[in-house]
Amino acid sequence: MISLNSVTKTYNEGRPNEVQALRGIDLTIARDAVTVLKGPSGSGKTTLLSLVGCMARPTSGRVSLNGDVVSGLPERFLTELRRTTFGFVFQRFNLIRGLSVLDNVMLPAAPLGQSHAAVRARAMERLEALGLVHRALMPVEHLSGGETQRAAIARALINDAPILIADEPTANLDTELTLRFLEIVAALRAEGRAVVMTSHDPRIWGAEGVDTVIEMRDGQIAGEYA
Amino acid sequence: MIHWLRLQRSLADFTLAALGRRRGKNTALVLTYALVVFVLASAMFFAAALRHETQLVLADAPELTVQKLVLGRQAQIEAEVIDQIAAIRGISGAKGRLWGYYYDRISGANYTFMVPTDPDLVPPAGSVIIGEGIARSRDLEWSGAPLFLSRHVGDLQKFEVVRSFEGDSALMTSDLVLMNDADFRSFFNVEPGLFTDVVATIRNPKEVGTIVEKASHAMPDLRFVTRDDILRTYQKVFDWREGLLAALAAAGLLAFVIFAAEKASGLSAEEAREVGILKAVGWDTRDVIAMKLWEGGLVSLGAFLLGTTLAYLHVFAFGGGIFAPVLKGWSVIYPDFALAPHVDALQLTTLALLTVVPYVAATLVPIWRAASADPDAIMR
User: Fold this and answer.
1) pLDDT for B182-205, tens place per residue?
2) B255 located within any domain
3) For B23, nearest residue in chain A (alpha carbons)
4) Are residues B177 and B256 in the same domain?
5) What is the extent of the structural domain holding B173?
6) pLDDT tens for residues B77-130?
7) Which residues of chain B neighbour A155 with C-beta distances below 8 Å?
8) Which of A145-159, A196-210, B335-349 has the lowest mean pLDDT?
9) Of the residues B163, B195, B227, which one is the last residue of a structural domain?
C-alpha cells in the first residue's frame, strides 16, 4: 500500500518561476490494483507519479510504502527502492538510443551486481513474453512505436518489480497498440503486480481491468472512482 | 567481492556499448590522445635508451683523464708529466693518449682520430680502422676501398682500410678513425714526446674524489676529469635534447587538455538525458560516476597503451626515424645503430599518470553535477 499524507510539491521554490505542482494530496493506492491518474496537462499527474515512484521527495507531507515513511529517506535508499520495488515506463519511453533492445532492458539490473548470464537470460525471458525476442539485438531507434513501448515495459520488469509505474504509456499509440498494452497490464495484474499510471486517454481509464481512477486538477485530487 | 566485480563488469559492458555508439568521435579522440602520448613516449624511450647505452659504453672508459691547460685551453701534454701522474698516491698506472679532430672537406664532416691504447686495435703502418659512419659518408662501399685524406690543397694521403666498426658500438665509433702512433704523429705533425692527454687507472675507485682534489692542488696547470664527470655531461646533453622534444610534446598535451576540458566542461543535452534515465531506472550517483570513470579510463588508458606501444615500435623497431635527428645530435655523420630496448619504469609511470589522470578527472566533474540531480527531471 502506498499512502500520501498532506503532500505538496513546489518546483523552483523561492524563484520567479516557482510552480506549485501538488497541493495537499491525501491518497492511498492499493498494492494489488491497477490505478490510473487522469486529468488535463499540468494537473500534477506526473509529479504525483514521481513521488509515488520515489523519484523525488515532497516539499511537505509524507509518502509511505507499506507503512514505512519513505519521503525522508536519503537518496541512496530511494535509489534502492526504485531499483527493487518499482519499474518505470516513461512517457517517451526514454530508451537509450544507439544501444540494443537487450542492452536497454538489462540497464536497471546493472547496479545489482548479478551474474551477467542470469540477467541476460531474464531479459530474454521478458522480451519473449512481450513478443520482442527477435528484436533483442536491434538498436532501439529502429523499433516501431508499439515495439518501443514493449521494450520499455520489459526494461521496467527486469528487476521483477512488484509495482509498475507508467507515465502516459499510450500517448501517440493507435487503438490496436493501446489494447495490446491493456492486455499486458492485465497479465501483470494476474501475476500479482500493481500498476500505477497516468493517462488522459479515455481508452485507458475507461478500460475493464482498471480498479481505481483518480482524477486530478490544478495539483489537487478532484475525484476518485472505483 | 564477487558482487563488486560483477557490478564493474556490468558498468564496463554498458560503457563499451555506449562508447561504440559514437565510434567516429571516440576513435578520433583516442587517436589524438595517442598521438600526444606517442610523441612524449618516443622522446622518453629514445633518451632513456641512449642514456643506458652511454652508461654501458662509458663503463669501459678510463677512470681518470688528465689534460694540460694553457691559457684556459687544452694543450698537448709532455711525456714527463705522465710519470708525475703515475707517481701520485692511489694511481696505479698512467698512459699518454693521442687523439684529435679532423675536418673532412669532401664529406663536410668532422672525424675523430685516435691511436688505440689496446694493442690489438693498432693498425699496421699506412692503414686505418674506421667507423661505419665514415664509410657511409665517403661511399666506401666495397671492401678494401682505401681512405684518402687531405690536409691542405695539393696534399693527399692514402690509407688502407683494414677493418670497420659495425653497428653495436656505433654510438661511440661512428666517426672514429684509428691509426698507429707513427702515422698519427706524421699526419698531424705532433712532436715525439707529446700527447693529447693522459688516462690513469685508480687503485681504489672510491678514492677518486680525494685523489683528484690532491692532484689538482699539486698540479694546478692540469685538469683532472673523472668518468663520472663525462657520464654527467652526456646525461645533461641527452636530458637537454629530451627536454626539447618534451617541450614540443607539452605544447601538444596542452592543446589536448584544452580540448578535453572543453569536452568535459559541459555534458551535451543527450548525455544529461541519459544520466537522468539511468538514475530513474535505479542507478545510484556512485554507479553513474563509476561508469564515467570506466569511460575516461578506457579512453585514456587505451590511448596511453596505443601511444606507448607505437612509440616503443618507433624507437626500438624502426630506429626512431622521426626524432632521431634531434635526439642523436646535430652532425653530418649520424651513428647508424639499433637501440637496445630499455624502458625506465618510473618515467613510464609518470607519463601514465600525467596522461590518464587529468583526462579522467576532467570528465568526472561535470558528471558529478549531472548525477547528483534528482532523477524526476527525466519525467518532466
Assistant:
1) 999 999 999 999 999 999 988 888
2) yes
3) A98
4) no
5) 77-195
6) 998 888 888 888 888 889 999 999 998 888 888 888 999 888 888 899 999 998
7) 281
8) B335-349
9) B195
Establish if B217 belongs to a structural domain.
no
What is the per-residue pLDDT across A80-130, written as a single tens digit (0 to 9) for each?
Answer: 888 889 999 988 888 998 899 999 999 999 888 888 899 999 999 889 888
Residues B57-61 have a mean pLDDT of: 74
ipTM value: 0.87
Kindly state whether A100 is in contact with chain B, defined as any CB-CB distance less than 8 angstroms.
yes
- Residue A131 touches partner B, C-beta closer than 8 Å: no
Is A173 an interface residue toward B (CB < 8 Å)?
no
Q: In this structure, are B191 and B246 located in the same domain?
A: no
Residue A153's nearest CA partner among A171, A167, A139 is A167
